[in-house]
Amino acid sequence: MNNKERLMQVILKPITTEKTTGLADKANTFSFKVLPSATKKEVQGAVELLFNVEVVGVQTTNVKGKTKRTGARMGKRSDWKKAYVRLKDGQDIDFATA
C-alpha cells in the first residue's frame, strides 16, 4: 500500500464533545478516532495532509471498550485509539467546511 493511501485511512473521524471543543479553544488541540495500528508519525502526517495545517505534537491513548449488559448477557464494546493533535499557533481546523 502506498504511504499516501495509508495516511488517508489513518483518521477515522473527529471527536467533537464539550471537552474536546474546550481543548480546541484553549490549547489549539483537536482529537480524532484513529486506527488502532496508527503511529504518532502517521497521525501527524495524516492531519497535515488532510487539513493542510502544521502539527506541533501528537499524543495517543488506547481507550478500553466498556462492558455492557444486554438482557441476561454481558457484552463488550470494541477497544479503540484516540489521538490528541496540537497545532501550531494561529492554525485551525474547521470541521464544518473540512
Describe the protein:
It is a single chain. About 30% of the residues lie in helices and about 35% in strands. The relative contact order is 0.23. It contains three helices and six strands. The longest helix has 12 residues, at about 40-50. The model has no long low-confidence stretch (mean pLDDT about 95). The two termini are about 25 Å apart. The strands form two sheets. It has a four-stranded antiparallel beta sheet. With about 100 residues, it is α+β, with helices and mostly antiparallel strands. The protein has a single domain (about 5-85), classed as Alpha-Beta Plaits.
Which of globular, elongated, flat, extended, rod-shaped describes the shape?
A: globular
**Count of extended strands:** 6
Main sheet: strands, sense, barrel: 4 strands, antiparallel
Corresponding CATH superfamily: RRM (RNA recognition motif) domain
Q: What strand order characterises the main sheet?
A: 1-2-6-3
Query: Which percent range fits the helix content?
Result: 25-40%
The total number of structural domains is 1
CATH class: Alpha Beta
Kindly, what is the distance between the CA atoms of the first and last residues, rounded to a whole number of angstroms?
25 Å
Write the layout of secondary structure elements.
Elements: H1 3-10, E1 11-14, H2 18-27, E2 29-34, H3 40-51, E3 55-63, E4 67-70, E5 73-76, E6 80-87
Antiparallel strand pairs: 1-2, 2-6, 3-6, 4-5
Helix pairs in contact: 1-3
